[in-house]
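Researcher: Let's do a round of design. I'm pasting the structure tokens now; please hold your answer until I've finished.
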């Protein structure tokens, strides 16, 4: 199957009432792990690359690796998404490269650190939507600010500092026409989300519900959705690592989110933990080894296991064969003739 529009993938998820994991990649092994997990569970999938990933792997390597994945797994609907674009130019360059979806994270200024004003966010996101939709490309926006910092990106602080205001979310979606909307409901990026075991109310479900009720056609996105499992932390620490005690988002909370309109679930940290633990184990137990394949293969397998589990938990497993890819040119026509409009957005005030 050719690379598909993320909008199509999320529209299908909404019909089926499930969530789709969006997994970050930087290299070939991570892409292979995701695709094998998708094959194993028969899942549609979103592969996403951050600015850091694009700089690390070099754009063309990344693009061709993901393209190779779509050729090798023709039965898997696969969307290629830019994670946390910081400016119009970053999104434009991803679209010109061949990404089928971009995130314009205008909740922060272009420095990726300072919270932006609502007006600034609307203006830059609308600019990206106009450019992207004309070309059939999906756009995710963000309103409210997540906690934590990843690779220099993020406002820092706890996930509860800038939770999304539902009224602003509605106004933002109406003014920009985004296909998907990341909202801040208490999660944060990275491994250190909660310093004690979270209870059942870690996520601001009332905010999620209020937004979903008023924006039924806009797909909600949950960033910072790693669960930071204890077993993965333990493997790292058992083999010489020094992770401090920490907790992530319980999977049941994510599932509750999915039952209330969350369609895209971003996971990076859990896979980083799985990879690092597997590599540490091999190097610790067999220090004589020096062939990278000896540790990259178990690392890839460890990531596949985590991704396959998440695909099952998010509900996307079993749905790869539900639909055929609509071409990006057809999607562009849908934006032009209004059939893909997310308006009227407001179902009930
Ligand atoms: O949201 C951040 C993702 O985990 C990607 O992180 O910017 O370090 O590649 P990165
Ligand atoms: P985690 O750090 O929880 O995996 O979140 C990843 C993310 O939101 C990428 O955009
Ligand atoms: Zn994120």
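Researcher: That's everything. Go ahead.
Model: Designed sequence:
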């Amino acid at each position: 199957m050719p690379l598909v529009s993320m909008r199509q993938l999320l529209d299908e998820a909404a019909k089926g009432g499930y969530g789709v994991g969006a997994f970050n990649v930087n290299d070939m092994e991570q892409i292979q792990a995701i695709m094998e997990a998708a094959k194993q569970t028969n899942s549609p999938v979103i592969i996403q690359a951050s600015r850091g990933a694009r700089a690390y792997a070099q754009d063309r390597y990344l693009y061709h690796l993901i393209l190779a994945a779509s050729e090798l797994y023709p039965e898997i609907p696969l969307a290629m998404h830019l994670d946390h674009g910081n400016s119009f130019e970053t999104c434009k360059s991803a679209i010109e490269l061949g990404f089928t979806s971009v995130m314009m994270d205008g909740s922060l200024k272009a420095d990726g650190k300072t919270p932006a004003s609502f007006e600034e966010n609307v203006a830059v996101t609308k600019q990206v939507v106009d450019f992207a939709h004309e070309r059939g490309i999906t756009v995710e926006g963000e309103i409210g600010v997540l906690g934590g910092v990843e690779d220099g990106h993020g406002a820092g602080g706890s996930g509860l500092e800038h939770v999304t205001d539902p009224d602003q979310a509605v106004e933002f979606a109406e003014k920009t026409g985004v296909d998907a909307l990341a909202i801040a409901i208490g999660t944060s990026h990275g491994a250190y989300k909660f310093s004690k075991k979270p209870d059942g109310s870690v996520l601001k479900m009332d905010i999620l519900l209020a937004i979903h009720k008023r924006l039924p056609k806009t797909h909600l996105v949950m960033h910072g959705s790693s669960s930071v499992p204890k077993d993965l932390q333990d493997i790292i620490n058992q083999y010489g690592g020094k992770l401090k005690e920490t907790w992530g988002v319980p999977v049941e909370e994510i599932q509750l989110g999915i039952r209330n309109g969350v369609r895209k679930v971003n996971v990076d940290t859990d896979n980083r933990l799985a990879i690092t633990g597997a590599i540490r184990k091999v190097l610790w137990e067999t220090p004589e080894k020096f062939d990278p394949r000896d540790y990259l293969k178990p690392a890839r397998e460890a990531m596949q296991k985590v991704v396959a589990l998440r695909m099952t938990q998010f509900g996307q497993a079993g749905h790869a064969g539900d639909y055929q890819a609509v071409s990006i040119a057809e999607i562009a026509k849908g934006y032009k003739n209004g059939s893909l409009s997310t308006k009227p957005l407001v179902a009930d005030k």
